Amino acid sequence: xxxxxxxxxxxxxxxxxxxxxxxxxxxxxxxxxxxxxxxxxxxxxxxxxxxxxxxxxxxxxxxxxxxxxxxxxxxxxxxxxxxxxxxxxxxxxxxxxxxxxxxxxxxxxxxxxxxxxxxxxxxxxxxxxxxxxxxxxxxxxxxxxxxxxxxxxxxxxxxxxxxxxxxxxxxxxxxxxxxxxxxxxxxxxxxxxxxxxxxxxxxxxxxxxxxxxxxxxxxxxxxxxxxxxxxxxxxxxxxxxxxxxxxxxxxxxxxxxxxxxxxxxxxxxxxxxxxxxxxxxxxxxxxxxxxxxxxxxxxxxxxxxxxxxxxxxxxxxxxxxxxxxxxxxxxxxxxxxxxxxxxxxxxxxxxxxxxxxx
Length: 358
Ligand code: MRU
Prior knowledge:
By secondary structure, the protein is of the alpha/beta class. The protein contains twelve helices and 16 strands. The protein has helices spanning 2-8, 41-50, 56-77, 81-95, 100-114, 122-156, 179-188, 205-216, 229-235, 260-270, 301-304, 345-352; strands at 14-17, 20-24, 35-38, 161-164, 194-198, 221-224, 238-243, 247-249, 254-257, 273-277, 283-284, 305-306, 309-310, 322-325, 332-335, 338-341. The two termini are 15 Å apart.
């Protein structure tokens, strides 16, 4: 399956070329494919802040390359450039404060920086570290795809529909996707007839990104309003809901794009299995459970925009970006270190002690 996934690859959103970072601007998709060339750290921070690059793993990888760009500029300035780089770590960290993959990637770059010890070519070492973070995300995607496909095969066999939410594909990662990587793999293995993609209001990652990605690879995709999900589970032969995770707490609670929680509730009611696919870097052991996950509120602009006209009525809007799915609604979490069925604190702790499977 690995070779066939590699051969089918059509979408890439992050490229490091000739010492610059190129990001496919996700705000313009699917209507235009515009690339942002980042040659300085400020451009990377802005791309993260503005949503030009999105998806937790993609944000982490971009930030790692951002540190390479920053180091190049700081070293050219001379003096204590290691110390000066702290401001760039802060700039990137502040661009996505709730994204644990971002903090994880920055910490890994900081650790490598701390171990340079008068290395003759420090910039080359940092560049190699960022490339390794990128490559290991691609490898993790492939491992998770295989594990997820094995689970689907074990539980149901062929001919089924899968429902997904938000965008967790090539656009959101360094490779093939987390949840969407599993879905791609399952399609390649002939185990999926159709993918239902929630439009994912209010930012519409489903209609703008997931439908575009799947259609580009010729995978049958049906776009649906988020509010149609329960009806689809009841009437369209959905056997799995497969989603990604923004962050996973120590007890297995999963924070993900707003709308994920209601899918898990509906899946439980309809006997549909619920799979979360995320690299272990999304697991945050400092959060005992999902209660402390910071749920940022968006401005509500998308909700107030009704057919291009702004709703002026005196109404308040409630526009959270994420929600938390309790662990007891989750059948399985798939990571590159292995799977956890019926997640709980002990199983998550055990998984974190394991090595990667590849
Ligand atoms: O706001 P977004 O589009 O970055 O939200 C993305 C999600 O919620 C994803 O499910 C998560 O980051 C995992 S992407 C592989």
